[in-house]
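[recover] target loaded
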């Protein structure tokens, strides 16, 4: 007996409808991991511990947003960790040499824009894989950071206080960087899900040839995303610098791997064409919770990478399972 298309029997259940939400897998993993750490250490859900997580999470989350946008359009950026370190080191250097505080703050962001532009042009115009392009940029910029700083952190300058409160001020339970993070999440969610440029990102990541046939210019989309991720990396680096009151030349080490992991855990496809801003937020939260939860559980710090790797593999397997289930429902 045929079931009419509008019959209740033909409608997908609540479980099946949830599968069509891109962030479902990430949310499920987040809930499970939080429960595990709560069982291992009830202090995990205390207000003091939540305050710790909120103080350190925005920096990874801000960079993860940009990395997600770039991965959706089909490219990678391994230089984000170096840009993350470059911006505060340049700021510290400029302030130490007597620059105007406003100019010392603006120039590092201009440098980040140039780095993103360079990455984008080399990748798209010279047809060099972004993995290679940004690997080279990562090494070059890390070398520049060490040359400028001589391998030592710059001393804190009171001139930086004029923008410390705005970008990383301690508001008690949270820092002002949390509001910047939330604002960026909202802005880029709207861009990705509600604008033509967002549709272009998905189209370019899905098929460059098909995107060109639709009148989209893939190179332009990718170059813009390279610049966005570089600026967000610089902003996150400045937020950490202002929070810690120290420009560390080794900051941002392994950040490129953490942000890619956060994006993939949140459902971003390595091949491009799929992903979401909310998913990257969930992924960055999972990584920070993993780090924090292992410390509270008394595990040695070097176990963190092991568990992030496991989480990454489980997340990809989970997303594959969800995709197969969706195909069957359809």
């Amino acid at each position: 007996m045929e079931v009419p298309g509008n019959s209740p029997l033909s409608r997908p259940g609540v479980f099946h409808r949830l599968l069509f939400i891109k962030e479902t897998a990430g949310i499920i993993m987040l809930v499970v991991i939080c429960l595990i750490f709560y069982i291992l250490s009830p202090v995990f859900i205390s207000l003091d511990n939540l305050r710790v997580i909120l103080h350190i999470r925005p920096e990874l989350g801000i960079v993860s947003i940009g990395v997600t946008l770039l991965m959706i359009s089909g490219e990678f950026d391994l230089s984000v960790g170096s840009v993350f370190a470059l911006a505060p080191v340049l700021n510290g250097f400029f302030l130490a040499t007597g620059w105007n505080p406003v100019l010392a703050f603006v120039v590092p962001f201009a440098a980040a824009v140039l780095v993103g532009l360079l990455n984008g042009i080399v990748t798209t115009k010279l047809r060099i894989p972004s993995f290679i392009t940004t690997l080279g940029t990562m090494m070059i910029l890390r070398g520049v950071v060490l040359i400028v700083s001589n391998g030592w952190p710059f001393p804190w300058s009171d001139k930086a206080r004029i923008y410390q409160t705005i970008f990383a001020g301690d508001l008690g339970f949270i820092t002002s960087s949390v509001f910047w993070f939330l604002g960026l999440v909202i802005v880029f969610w709207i861009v990705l899900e509600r604008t033509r440029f967002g549709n272009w990102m998905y189209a370019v990541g899905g098929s460059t040839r098909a995107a060109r046939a639709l009148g989209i210019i893939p190179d332009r989309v990718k170059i813009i995303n390279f610049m966005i991720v570089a600026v967000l990396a610089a902003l996150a680096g400045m937020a950490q610098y202002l929070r810690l009151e120290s420009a560390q030349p080794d900051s941002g080490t392994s950040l490129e791997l953490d942000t890619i992991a956060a994006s993939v855990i949140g459902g971003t496809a390595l091949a491009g064409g799929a992903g979401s801003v909310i998913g990257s937020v969930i992924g960055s939260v999972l990584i920070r919770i993993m780090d924090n939860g292992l410390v509270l559980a008394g595990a040695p710090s070097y176990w963190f990478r092991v568990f992030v790797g496991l989480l990454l593999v489980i997340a990809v397997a989970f997303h594959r399972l969800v995709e197969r289930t969706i195909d069957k429902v359809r």
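[recover] notes: DSSP finds 14 helices and no strands in the chain.
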